[in-house]
Amino acid sequence: MMMRVLFICVVSCLLVVNDGSIINRCTLARILYQEDLDGFEGYSLPHWLCLAFVESKFNISKVTENADGTFDYGIFQINSRYWCNDYQSHSENFCRLDCEELLNPNLIPSIHCAKMIVSGSGGMKNWVDWRLHCLGRPLSYWLTGCRLV
């Protein structure tokens, strides 16, 4: 009986942690708007929302291991090879931050790093899933029902 109670407690804690890392679409839209991403490098707010959705399903704490031994971190799935230091694989660390910072509910490090990526060659085309699911598609519906101010 005690093991069953312990198991339920552990599973409940995991569910709470998991649910807590998903950010609401409109909340994310407001944060991105406040950080001046609407129109940044020619990408509208719906492009940023689509990027966050196709990469992480709005999961701030998502970590994905890649076949080459690198990892993608956070809401924008920023790769450890070039952009952040995960202390597991070689990194150029162009964003000058620990990859763990990209998993923080404070999205400012993720936003600043994403801005750096988008400012370089390729823009949002650096994200394969954005190219496949967002590029060239109507995206205005991503802001439906959201009040930005």
Automatic annotation (TrEMBL):
Signal sequence range: 1-20
Any single Gene Ontology cellular-component annotation: acrosomal vesicle
An example Gene Ontology biological process: fertilization
Key word Disulfide bond present: yes
SMART domains according to UniProt: LYZ1
InterPro entries in the record: Glyco_hydro_22 (IPR001916), Glyco_hydro_22_CS (IPR019799), Glyco_hydro_22_lys (IPR000974), Lysozyme-like_dom_sf (IPR023346)
Keyword annotations from UniProtKB, A to Z: Disulfide bond, Signal
PROSITE patterns: GLYCOSYL_HYDROL_F22_1, GLYCOSYL_HYDROL_F22_2
The family this protein is said to belong to: Belongs to the glycosyl hydrolase 22 family.
Protein known as: Lysozyme-like 6
UniProt source species: Rattus norvegicus (Rat)
Gene transcribed to yield this protein: Lyzl6
